[in-house]
Amino acid sequence: MGLEEERARIRRVLGERAFAAGFLVAGVLVFAWPFVRAPRLPLVPAFFHLVVAWALMVIGLAAMSRALSRAGREPGGDEDERRG
Amino acid sequence: MGDLGAAAAIVGAYVAVLFAIAGWAERPRGRRLASTPLVYALSLGVYATTWTYYGSVGFAARNGLLFLTVYLGPTLCAIGWWWVLRKLIRIKAEYRVTGLPDLLALRYERSHRVSLLATALLVVGLVPYLALQLKTLSATLGLVAGGGGALAYPRVGDRVGPPLVAFLVLFTVLFGLRRVRPTERHPGLMVALAAESVVKLVAFVAAGLYVTYGRFDGLADVFRRAAAAPAPPIPDLLGGHGVVTWLLHLLVSGVAVVLLPRQFHVAVVEASDEGHVRTAMWLFPAYLLAMNVFVLPIALGGLLLGLPVGQADTYVLSLPLEGGRSALSWLVFLGGFSAGTGMIIVETTALATMISNDVVVPAADRLPALAGLGRHLRQVRWASAAAILCAAFAYERAFGANYSLASIGFVSFVAVLQLAPAALGVIFWQGASRAGAVAGMSVGFAVWAYTLVVPVLARSGWLPDSILTAGPFGIEPLQPEGLFGVHLDAVSHAVLWTLVLNGGAFAVGSLLFPPSRAELARTDRIAGVRTGPPVAEGSDGSPVIASTAEKRAAAARLLARYHGEEDGARLADECLARAGAPRDGGLSAVQLAQLQSEVETALAAAIGSAAAHAALRRNPLVLPRESRAISAAYAEILASLNVSPAELERKREYHRERERILLHEAEAQRLLAEVSGQLGASLALEDVARAAVRLPVPQLAEAAVLWLAPDGRRPGRVWLAHAAPLREKAAREAADLAAARLGEVSSVARALATGRPVSHRDGPDPGWPEPLRAAVGRAHEMTLPLLAGRSALGTLTLFGAAARNGADDVALVEEVARRLAIALENALLYERAEEAVRARDEFLAVASHELKTPLTPLRIRIQTIERLVARGELGSVPREKLLQLFGGAEAQVLRIVGLVDDLLDVTRITTRKLKLRPEPMDLVQSVRAVVERHAHELAEARCAVRIDAPPEVRGTWDRLRVEQVLTNLVLNAAKYVPGARVDVRVRANAAHAEIAVHDDGPGIAPADQQRIFLPFERATSYLAVSGFGLGLFIVRQIVEAHGGSVTLDSAPGRGTTFTIALPRAAERSESVPGPSQA
Q1: Looking at CA atoms only, how far is residue B331 from chain A in angstroms?
Q2: Are B1075 and B1037 in contact (CB under 8 A)?
Q3: A79: nearest CB among B64, B90, B242
Q4: How many helices (H) and strands (E) does chain A have?
Q5: b/e for B453-470, b at 16 or more Cβ within 10 A?
Q6: Distance (Å, rounded) from C-alpha B936 to C-alpha A73?
Q7: Is B988 on the interface with A (CB under 8 A)?
Q8: Which residues of chain A does B268 touch, with a Cβ-Cβ cutoff of 8 Å?
Q9: Which residues of B496-518 are buried (b: 16+ CB within 10 A; e: fewer)?
Q10: ipTM of this model?
């Protein structure tokens, strides 16, 4: 692996981790919001808020998975077969 | 509804379908399906048990939205799966991990104590969870079969429990425990789990649609009625709990989704391709979302229809039953049946493997009476599975009626949480040790039992109830549900205390008893999943120390003890092949060591790493003599490398450090390449400066200020960049206003004076404008001079973090500043070159005009004379008229000669060919001669000239050149300020003579005062006044060639004074030097 490729890989991995950390923090904040705001949301609006946030989170995870899939160069296949 | 016979028929048919699916999946085509990411993600749906299927509705009816934490926690956790789960799958593939206790044992010194403790914790913690599933299956089967009398829970459990347990044991044995090596995958089980996930989702959504649209007019109707209903029975938002409870429940669920034995088994042990994690990380949360959309509507629907809250756990089934929807009821029941059986089968498979590897095999190795059990691992696991399910059934019979589904589920989740610190240590903390893991798990186990199990026993009558209210022995601070006065809900209370004490004990234990150096190296390999390169088959040239046949037989014997004769022989051959051992002949020391490692891994695949390590210790494959030879061989390898073990370690550290430095250097080079690229993108000074000031932000600094010093042609200029746009605006405005004074900031002045970086660690220099200092706060300041050759063009100031990595970063910013200075110098030169080209083009236009202007009147006069000659009228023209004609022609010729002389002088000056011929002369006489010589032009310009001079000022100068200087100055006054009064004053002392030529014209603007001494420059436009704009340039060159100087004193409205100072004894200059920079 060339130096440039290694630099690109490190940059990509750090970027991925930073995005994941930000995504996690944002998720916790959004999921906790109905219970920390004053006054607390009523039951039904809070339920809708959580379901919509959850759906958006799934979409975000799908996008993240797609990005990881494009960026990843690791060989796929059977891990156990590889080990023997 | 029919009786149990009909129920048995329907369940039997469904089970037969499940068996058929699992059986088909064991065939090649089914195996291919089992290895797809879709099946992997759906099989993770085993997380959704009867707790999800029935219990969530009950939980929602009592505690509002708190049920969602069980699914939102895993959704949040899925964000990190690509890094955590993938690493676990790699470790599993490399080290043949059979379960979570095995992974912990592998990491913590292959300690049997660690795996035993983890197994005990999981079995004790999860048997109630299994009991909960059995309870639900019995209760719902009774309900769907009629519900009354003997079919009511708990009595129905007596009838359906035993056959249910028998079926579950059978399925577990057939599809989960068929193989000795648990690491061999079970495609039938995985595909059956995926199918069950689909069935339970379809059934639950069908129930939700029925309640929402069959019993109400849609979701809006349910929610509208719920909003209008009184608080009881409609639940509170979180059942009266706060956000702390919400967050702690999220945490415990997020951990459980990976560490629950069934989840670890499906997600890690059964994983065929780490790439499947990418699909699972979004599909699994999507599955959970779909499963939960109708939970709250069903709960609210049941409550609005008047069903008692106490029966909310079965609303999903009782609502269709109450509505007489028989087919839907059976579908719903089968969905719940799928949820319960899937969980029980996988959980039992995982726990049975743990019991066999971490309890039975070690006991068989130590107790002669049990020695034979090691040869019957499969049967041991079958018996373990049966024992687990029987224990769960017994627990269900004893306690099942007293607790809701959710309360039991969370007790198990918190038990699993006790493995989290040690499990995180596997991946993230190399310094974690066996002592820490044992201490953490032990303390966590004890606190879990005290805070969650003791209250269950007390409420069931097994312990005095007073322990809950007054504490043990009347010590109130030790109340199991209110330790030291902390009162939260039972689960949050337990999570808080167990995490604090478990994590604390784990950290303290690991710090007090750290792993050995050898263990650190091994854990580093495990966490990094690094292995050596494959060993090539054949002799490696080293001496043979053991017979291949002998070692093959020993390995086969050992492996056969746990894998059986046939598999043992085959595995021994595979181990020899991977060790690179030749089929015949002997093994070298390195090959023998590798063989032992391979055999240990093969054993670990069946009995776990701790037991495998112990088995090899008791039945060593390597004899003491061979062990010494191996040590000698490795010592020889070290010697051939010319290093001691300690030195080898140091070298390793050196190479690690080198790698770190190289990466840092690579990053620096990347930044510098980016700097060069951006700086080279344009030659325009403004573009370069703007790009340059942005480059260090934010990689090297929080804010940057680029200041260009005044250069005589324009004042100081400043550019600024800040990581925060709002702060940048305020700071830039302040910097722009202070641009002219920034050179007085002491750090800038010092950097310019010394040519070295100036650093302020305690915040910016107080000389910076206040808004700029406010924008950068107390950030560290570093000001770097921008050096072009020896002169400084300006400074680059970085605020914040420029030196966070010490000398490396200082060197980096110095290099950035150096490249920036080069780019700025190039931009300045380019700007000057452009100006010169512009001036040249303008000059050519003017020169053409100037040279042509006298030619026209000259030509007219020549034509007139020619006409007179042709007509023979020349003699008749009066003499005065002829003289006027010839005089006018001569004047135009002289004008051209003057222009050409100026050009020749400039050429001589620039090529250093202008020679001075000094001679003794009287300066006053020359002044008077020049004024007299040009009296006509001065009179035409209406300029009155007054000479104020002593009688004589003698010196040695080039007379012609000095008179040329005087002529230029006097005629300049006449040319630019016609009608002005011109005073010429001559003064002298012993050393110098001084001539001042003053006019009372409008004066010269300060911006033009330097420029007018440059060639082809003038204060006014070319169109206003004729001439090349060379006069003052020639004046300065001639005067400086005499060793003198020219100064200009002028201001708008105050007239202009040119003062020439000449040394009375002129320097003997052979030629005039080239033009100096203005």
Answers
A1: 26
A2: yes
A3: B90
A4: 3, 0
A5: bbbbebeeeebeeebbee
A6: 91
A7: no
A8: none
A9: bbbbebbbebbbebbeeebbeee
A10: 0.88
